[in-house]
Amino acid sequence: MEHSPVLILIAAVLTNNIVFSGFLGMCSFIALSRRIDTAVGMGFAVTFVSTFTTALNWLIYHYVLKHGALSGVSFLDGVNLEPFTMIVFIAVIASFVQVVELIIQRISHSLYQALGIFLPLITVNCAILGVSLFMVIRGYGFISSVAFGFGSGLGWMLAIVLMAGLRRKMRFSKIPPGLEGIGITMITTGILAMIFMVFNGMVRIN
Known about the structure:
Oligomer: single chain
Radius of gyration: 18 Å
Number of strands: 0
Strand content: under 5%
Structural class: mainly alpha
Distance between the termini: 11 Å
Number of domains: 1
Shape: globular
C-alpha cells in the first residue's frame, strides 16, 4: 500500500535521505560543501531540478514509455520503449539543468561562478536520476512522485548545508594531518548518516 504524499515527503527528507541513506549525489555533495552560500545555492538548484524532472519523467514514463502512447506511429509499432527509460530521464534532466543555468547566471553571476563546472554536472547527478528511477521502481502515483522528488531535493540540500556548516567549524579545529580534507569529510558524513538513523522510527518508505 502506497504511503501518503506527506509521509513520502517527510521520509525523503529524513529517514530516506538521498545522501545519508542512499549515498547518492556524493561527488557534488563533497565538492560544494566548503561554503554555506554555495551549498544553499546548489541545494535550491538540485531541489528545483529534482521536483520538476520527477514530475515530467513520471508523465513521460506512464503515458509514453510504459503504455506505448507512440505505438500509433508506424515505425514504432511493436517497439518496447521501456529500455529507453534511463536515456529519456537523463535527457529531461539535462534540459532542466540548462534552464537552471540560465536562471542562476541571470540572477546571481557570483553564485554561477562559485558553482562552476558542478552546475552542468547536475545532469549526471546520480541523486536526481535515482529519484526518477526510484519512483518507477516503487510504483508511486503522480502526486507521490512529485512529493518524493521535492523531498529528496530538500533532503539533499539539508545534507549539504549541514556539511558546509560543519566544515566551516572544522577550519578552526585541530585535525590530524592524515585526515585533513577528504578524510575528515567522509568520516563526518558517516557520523551524520548514523545520526539520521534515529529518524527511522518515524516513517520509512520502500
